[in-house]
Amino acid sequence: MTGDLARMTALSVTDLGYSYGPKRALDGVSFALRPGFTALLGPNGAGKSTLFSLLTRLFVTREGQITVAGHDMARAPRAALSRIGVVFQQPTLDLDMSVARNMRYFAALHGIAGREADARAADALDRLGMAERSAEKVRNLNGGHRRRMEIARALIHRPQVLLLDEPTVGLDFQSRQAIVDHVHGLAGNGLTVLWATHLVDEIRDSDDVVVLHQGRVLAHDSAERLHRGAPLSEVFMQMTGGTEAAR
Amino acid sequence: MKVWITAMLAIVRREALRFVHQRSRFLAALVRPLVWLVVFAAGFRAALGLSIIPPYQTYITYEIYIVPGLCGMIQLFNGMQSSLSLVYDQEMGSMRLLLTSPLPRWWLLLSKLLAGVAVSILQVYVFLAVAAGFGITLPGWGYVAALPALVISGLMLGALGLLISSTIRQLENFAGVMNFVIFPMFFMSTALYPLWKMAESSELLRDICAWNPFTHAVELIRFALYLELNLPALGWVTACFALFFGLAVVGYDPAYGMTRRRRQG
């Protein structure tokens, strides 16, 4: 990828590789994302979590390059990280604190305090339809609302890129649908979203899809062009050798 | 710099609030040294004769002798408790979140460490107040002079906990820490008996105690409580803090440490 193109895209990954000892987890992974919703689709064990760990600098590698809003993750990790919001599979909220207090903590981790933090927390909660729950203890929220709060938390520093690692795990259908809708709404407003999943029903025709399998990118195209009228689940199963039924 | 301070204060505040919410943890932290003080020390005061050793200027009762050791014990347990909660945090997402904050990792870890130290100092002072209620009092200004010593010893013991948390992958392995870190460190130190008393039973044991960083933490606190500065102890504790913290930062570095060894899907 040329430098100019890297600057235009919010997130680009070039020739990324990673191994756990002799086991190759990622191999020559490259893609560039523009604002909008991109699904990172892959069966369990495809390397999605490893890729997320590299994108969030929990792991580092010497193979390949990650650029976030023009900042190289290896050379300027703090500038790159400040432009990323992350929703992990694991919860990060303190259950015994209120929604607002949790949000203030997350704002502070990005150096935002005082009125500015309160304003941003209110704004982020509002975007996720959570404004009226601000004073509630997190323990009293249901699973769906907790996930929404995780997303609000990831948006508090107004990142350009939002990474979500299977954010709907463990949720019922309705909560799942509501979260998928919310995040599509965010992507429609100019945020670059990378949504890791193995569930094809979370993907819309207009979305971009990066198909990851056994550590390699098998395809990167719009969902519509990938499935060409056939059910996406069948196309996905064909590509990945039917490793995992994904519905 | 304001950004750094904001993050540090938030981490300390969160840890303090967590502690306040966990009343049972606070109670356990207080009851443990009090049991030692009231039960163990009362039983041993008849058996153990203590000669006059610095910083004491006169004969002291055994209860007085073990107070600094019990202050150290509170900090030792607190350091390990923080370490335990860090291992738990790693399994949950909060540690990941902390590590993906756009601040230097050593600063984030130092903030976490200071949060633990603040909590441990609070515990120590509550313990000292309860001990005073039992009539076990120390020089008035000693309570103030002990504060910097408690900060340094707390940092050293917290850094040890941090280092351990960077090497442990699962919560289940934590019982080993109790057996192989806390108990040997506590019993093979000057917390319960002075070095000369150890030497009476074994020279080797005395040497081990003299090398044990916890011994120096206890002595630093002991001297500070009597308004004296134990420079060698300060040197030891500071050097151990630098070593443990340095290794912990390496342990948490994504290029070398535990995150690299963790397998993910």
How do you describe this structure in short?
The complex is a heterodimer of chains A (247) and B (265). With 247 residues, chain A is of the alpha/beta class.
Observed structural traits:
heterodimer, A: 247 residues, alpha/beta, Rossmann fold, 6-stranded mixed beta sheet, 4-stranded antiparallel beta sheet, 9 helices, B: mainly alpha, 0% strand, globular, disordered C terminus, Alc_ABC_transptr_permease (chain B), membrane (chain B), ABC_2_transport (chain B), transmembrane helix (chain B)
Question: Mind explaining what this structure looks like?
Answer:
The complex is a heterodimer of chains A (247) and B (265). In chain A, 35% of the residues lie in helices and 26% in strands. Chain A is an alpha/beta fold. Chain A folds into two domains: 1-83 and 159-247, P-loop containing nucleotide triphosphate hydrolases (Rossmann fold); 92-158. In chain A, β1 and β2 form a beta hairpin. Chain A is globular and about 50 Å long. The chains are: A alpha/beta (247), B mainly alpha (265). Chain A binds chain B through residues 20, 25, 44-50, 53, 56-60, 77-79, 81-82, 84, 86, 88-92, 94, 96-97, 101, 104-106, 108-113, and chain B through 2-4, 6-7, 9-11, 13-14, 17-18, 21, 91-94, 96-104, 254-255, 259-260, 263-265. Chain B: The chain crosses the membrane at residues 34-53, 65-88, 109-134, 140-164, 176-196, 233-252. Chain B: It is a multi-pass membrane protein. Chain B: This is Transport permease protein.
